[in-house]
Design brief:
The complex is a heterodimer of chains A (about 400) and B (about 90).
Chain A (H helix, E strand, L loop, with lengths): L2 H4 L3 H15 L4 E7 H9 L2 H4 L4 E8 L1 H4 L2 H11 L4 E6 L12 H6 L3 E5 L2 H10 L4 E8 L4 H13 L5 E7 L2 H10 L7 E5 H7 L5 H6 L4 E4 L3 H17 L4 E3 L11 H10 E3 L2 E4 L3 E4 L3 E3 L8 H4 L15 H6 L30 H7 L2 H10 L17
Chain B lengths: L4 E10 L4 E6 L2 E6 L12 E5 L2 E5 L2 H27 L4
Antiparallel strand pairs in B: 1-2, 1-4, 2-3, 4-5
Classes of the chains: A alpha/beta (about 400), B alpha+beta (about 90).
The complex binds iron/sulfur cluster.
Chain lengths: ~400, ~90
């Protein structure tokens, strides 16, 4: 698409950054990008290096691979190891460590684990292997859940008996609420996850502006989208506005995608609570299949251990996911924990903050910058813009 | 995982299963269009995520965003120019 190039115009980016600099007047601002896709763009294109130094991008919990707790990975591996099962997953999940091994290890030991691009590919595998049980490892936020939903509806319509879904879909809004309620978090604004918004629309974010008095700008994924969204956030703060704004109007309709919401509604319902890595148990933060779809529910069809496992002691993914520390501040970052030998989840998926830092080599520069003692002589102590 | 790729609809190929052929940066493949049923046709741009067309890409909105960005860039440049010209004593 021809305008993709234009969304990467470096000159324009620099000019926008000068505007951000002017509007923020040197005050230190923490803006959380919720989505791992944004984190990826930020490091791939070195956006932190062009933003004024007083703007701190805090990475949120929006990488569905990263937030899955270890116990669920163990459950997945337990299903994959059952005889006669073909376990189908997105490629991102293969290396994620469970308490003892990963799906990749399970495959090396003989389990039939395959990775695909779409849940519909998993359904096709079920068609092709009528004598096997095909289980799809469904992960992802509201962006991905509708695809699982439509696949389930098709499995139901075609009466496919050897297909089921291990449902781990999580919801973005409860996670944002948990972060806003967490006492150690001080944020000045949010970049909303553009592709989740294309499904759920703008309205679910209204409480952030109304009840917590923080700006939310729903943002696209090109470098200029992110920079413009930061600009819009800073502008809201400067003008004393607290609103949900849509920077990504070329994709996000205010009402979202009603057909997608309807498909989710037909097939899935909320779980009373779900454990998130780093954030702990959050109520109504995940989806499971409705009782009408019990036939296609892997949790009903297979024995899963369902045991809660604590993260390894060296792992600080929880703090990274909450934005409490930066990836390079984790003790094992880049030494014991690398994309080749990940200890935590944030190093596995390319949308994980640790992997993004590692892969794009920003960490040395960022670490250097951050380890210098920074004393801001202009701002009064602890002043964040317009405390609310 | 949460990223999407823009593609252009070429034609509908399987009405029952809501499949359409799309071109994604030179590659042609089938995607499921059930979530945009009745809203799109050949020639339209859509955002594709895990094999599903999720949202119609609004080219006009995209151009608007760019125009806004460019204008902002220009406004700022003009301001700089003015600043350079001003000779306050
Ligand atoms: S470096 Fe590894 S263990 Fe530490 S937070 Fe990142 S992914 Fe987790």
């Amino acid at each position: 698409m021809k305008f993709v190039d234009e969304f990467r115009d470096g000159d324009l980016a620099r000019r926008l950054c000068s505007e951000i600099d002017r509007l923020s007047r040197g005050q230190s601002l923490k803006i959380m990008e919720i989505c791992g896709g944004h984190t990826h763009t930020i490091y791939k294109h070195g956006i932190e290096d062009v933003l004024p130094p007083n703007i701190d991008m805090v990475h949120g919990p929006g990488c569905p691979v990263c937030v899955l707790p270890m116990g669920r990975i163990d459950d997945a591996i337990a299903i994959a190891r059952q005889p006669g099962v073909i376990f189908v997953t997105f490629g991102d999940m293969m290396r994620v460590p469970g308490s003892k091994s990963s799906l990749l290890d399970a495959r090396a030991e003989g389990a039939d684990v395959r990775f695909v691009y779409s849940p519909l590919d998993a359904l096709k595998i079920a068609h092709q292997n009528p004598d096997k049980q095909v289980v799809f490892f469904a992960i992802g936020f509201e962006t991905t859940a509708p695809s699982t939903a439509v696949t389930l509806l098709r499995a139901q319509a075609e009466k496919i008996k050897n297909f089921s879904v291990f449902c781990n879909h999580v919801l973005v809004i409860p996670a944002i609420q948990a972060i806003l309620d967490s006492p150690d978090m001080r944020l000045d604004g949010f970049l909303g996850p553009g592709h989740v918004c294309m499904v759920i629309g703008m309205r679910p974010f209204a409480f952030v502006a109304r009840d917590y008095r923080k700006p939310v700008v729903l943002s696209g994924f090109e470098p200029l989208d992110i920079i413009q969204s930061v600009y819009m956030t800073v502008k809201q703060l400067d003008e004393g506005r607290r609103e949900v704004e849509n920077q990504y109007a070329r994709v996000v309709r205010p009402e979202g995608n009603l057909k997608a919401l309807e498909a989710m509604e037909k097939t899935m319902e909320g779980r009373p609570f779900f454990e998130w890595r780093g954030l702990g148990f959050i109520s109504h933060s995940a989806l499971k299949l409705r009782p009408e779809f019990a036939e296609w529910d892997a949790e009903k069809r297979f024995e899963v251990p369902g045991i809660r496992v604590a993260d390894p002691p060296a792992c600080q993914c929880g703090e990274v996911l909450k934005g409490a520390i930066k990836p390079w501040e984790c003790k094992v970052f880049g030494t014991a924990c690398t994309p080749e030998t990940p200890i935590g989840t944030c190093m596995v998926s390319s949308e994980g903050a640790c992997a993004a830092y590692f892969n794009y080599g920003r960490f040395s520069l960022a670490a250097q910058r951050n380890r210098l003692p920074v004393i801001d002589l202009t701002a009064p102590t602890g002043a964040n813009l317009k405390d609310s | 995982m949460c990223l999407g790729i823009p593609g252009q609809i070429i034609e509908f190929v399987d009405d029952q299963n809501n499949l359409a052929r799309v071109e994604v940066s030179g590659v042609k493949r089938n995607v499921n269009v059930s979530l945009l049923r009745g809203e799109i046709g050949p020639g339209d741009w859509v955002l594709i995520h895990v094999g599903f067309a999720m949202s119609k890409l609004d080219e006009r909105e995209a151009q608007e965003t760019l125009k806004l960005l460019y204008e902002m860039g220009r406004a700022y440049q003009d301001e700089l120019l003015m600043l350079e010209k001003s000779q306050l004593e």
